Amino acid sequence: MITKRIIPCLDVKNGRVVKGVNFEGLSDVSSPVELAKMYWEQGADELVFYDITASFEGRKLFTDVLREVASTIFIPLTVGGGINTVEDFDRVLKCGADKVSVNSGAIRNPDLINEAAQIYGNQCVVLSVDVKRVNNEFHVFAKGGREDTGIEAIEWIKSGVKRGAGEIVVNSIDTDGVKQGFDIEMLKAVQDVVNVPVIASGGAGCINDFVTLFNEIPKMSAGLAASIFHFGEVAIKDLKDELNKNNIPIRRI
Amino acid sequence: MIAITDYGVGNLFSIKSSLDVIGAESVVTSDADVLRSADKIILPGVGAFRDARKKLSESGLDKVIIEEAQKGKPILGICLGMQLLFEKSYEYGEYDGLGLIKGEIRPIADVIGEGLSIPHIGWNPLIFKKESPLFKYLKDGDCVYFVHSYYAADCGESVTATAEYGAELTASAEKGNVFGCQFHPEKSGKAGLSILKAFSEM
Question: Could you tell me which of A84, A180, A174, A81 has the C-alpha nearest to residue A130?
Answer without folding.
Answer: A174
